[in-house]
Amino acid sequence: MSAAPIALERRWMRARRLPGLRGQGGVIASVAFLVVVTLAAILAPEISPHNPSAADLSSLLSPPGTPGHLLGTDTAGRDILSRIIYGARISLLAPLVLVVISSTLGTAIGVCAGWMGGIADEVISRVMDFLFAFPGLLIAIIAVALFGTGVTAPIVGLIIAYTPYTARLARGLVAQERNLPYVESYRQQGFSGPRIALTMLLPNIAPTLLAQSALSFGYGLIDLATLSFLGFGVQPPTADWGVMVSDAQQGILQGDIWVALFPGLAIMLTVISFNVLGDAIAERIGRTEAA
Amino acid sequence: MLRFCARRLGGSLVTLLISSFLIFGSLYLVPGDPAVYLAHGRVTAPQLAALRREYGLGQPFFERYVHWLFGLVHGNLGESLQYHEPAARLIGSRLAVTGTLVAYAAVLIILGGLALGLLGALRRGTLVDRGVLLFSSAATAAPAFLTVVLLLAIFSVDLHWFPALGAGQGFGDRLWHLTLPAVGLALSAVGLITRVSRTAFLDSLRREHVEVARSRGLSERSVIRRHVVRNSLGPVATMTGLVVATLVVSTTVVESAFGINGIGSLLDSSVQTLDYPVIQAISLLVVVVFLVCNTAVDLLYPFIDPRVASWRSRAA
Predict the structure, then answer these.
(1) B41 contact partners, CB below 8 Å, separation of at least 6
(2) Rounded to whole angstroms, how far apart are CA atoms B230 and B237?
């Protein structure tokens, strides 16, 4: 079963770039936004105007711009800005853990397959191909059913789902790279295979893998927020962007849209920033275009 | 061609077999006694013993799997612990709604993605193109749950254009009820397909044969239709095939938000009540949908794009 041939995947990767936002301005804005969000997450107790779980029953669903509540309050009277700032912690940390583990694992598997070739490659590629038949969200939902709600089960499920993508990319890159003359020349100089693969070849393909990781972060953020929205991931009353949109559903029926809009915007802007960043790295290398 | 089909079908069956094994085996990953997990406080001690017998928990693992697999072949997907009904019947009664919803979304994805992609490619570099790209990146970054909640707030609660709940009766009413859910389900994939098709169209527009067709005096319209669009459908079809199976899982979000009684909301409630047999049955369904879509795209590919043509070369 060859799900999507490598050639197509490359075209797809090229297609996923965002030329419209790709100018330097877009990249700078994205980096700035991500720095602000990260700082907000780290400094949450210092900068957040209110306690994120403190319910102000005298001001339920107050609109944005209310004095003391810049972005308004939610259905329980909690300050939305404070919840977004605190929510940044788990909303960013969870995808970070997911991406670090799945990218490392995927790179290791892909480099092994691409470098060794032969039967090992065949077996690994088949197993990875096979995992593509399971959408990530489904694996995460199964993990939740087996191991209970919370942030761990979704992360574990999504690691299983995301690893094959990195592995396939890494495998393809290594398979191309190992036929280049420099690899052979190191071999002639007597370097061992693993040493060439890890110290000379890996740095050459690392930027492409990094670009992919930035894109994965965006997808991971969305998938994890989706699970929190469904009530399978981060549990209320913990502030999390997905949970906030879920909480907002009651407010929506009264026509109060901002309760869902602001955490939603936080998610979208973070994802777009990571996509722009990933594309900028990929373009900088110019590798996917050439290949 | 026949050989290619046989190979493709064989590959799919092997994938299905391995999937079924994993889906079956996953139950035994659960910490503690699977019977206690399945019972989930629903049954008394004697019933627990019955459950153990029913699931053959005393027998060796592989024997249990073969037994379960034979059940599958005979259409027995297990019994829901929540509803005390065969999972196959639960799924069957909801299949029509979810099938319509997913098909509706797929149509929106293909038409919307192609139209916007073509618009961007033909107006390359203009304000229109930038708009298309901006839409595409925003849509790709918008989680389905957010889109759905916002659509509900704007078009149901505020403007009263569309109903907020249920799936409707009869064809027209059903389409009307399912419009918002389908848009919510489709939006982020529309963004993705827009970008894929825009790139594919730009690729084709740059080709020599398009120049040749123009110089032969063909109208721009027919050049675009026959030489540009036709050439670009391949990658779009492949991506769409990959996306559709994901849509089935994403209905979980959409159906819960709109109170639609379909496969997605069944999966949602099954996880909440730990109705594992139903979760297993739905997982199998998703894998089947994935395999059917991808096999269909691969088999149709030579019709979509005759240059890739020979089944033999693609099979190799």
Answers:
(1) none
(2) 11
Angle of helix A241-253 relative to helix A258-285, nearest 10 degrees, comes to 140
* Residues A248 and A259 sit within 8 Å (Cβ to Cβ): yes
User: d(Cα A31, Cα A19) in Å, to the nearest integer?
Assistant: 17
| Six token digits for residue A142 | 């199964």
pTM exceeding 0.90: no
In angstroms, the CA B311 to CA B176 distance is 41
Per DSSP, chain B holds a count of helices (H) and strands (E) of 14, 0
Contact indicator for A275, B140 with CB cutoff of 8 Å = yes
Chain B residues lying within 8 Å of A229, measured CB to CB: 143, 145, 253
Ranges of residues in chain B whose predicted pLDDT is under 50 = 311-316
The residue ranges of every structural domain in chain B are 87-315
Alpha-carbon distance B89 to nearest alpha carbon in chain A (angstroms) = 21
Q: Using the beta-carbon criterion (under 8 Å), do A264 and B26 form an inter-chain contact?
A: no
Q: Return the CATH architecture of domain A25-50+71-290.
A: Orthogonal Bundle (1.10)
According to CATH, the superfamily of the domain at B87-315 is MetI-like (1.10.3720.10)
In this prediction the ipTM stands at 0.87
Q: Which residue of A has its CA nearest to B130?
A: A20
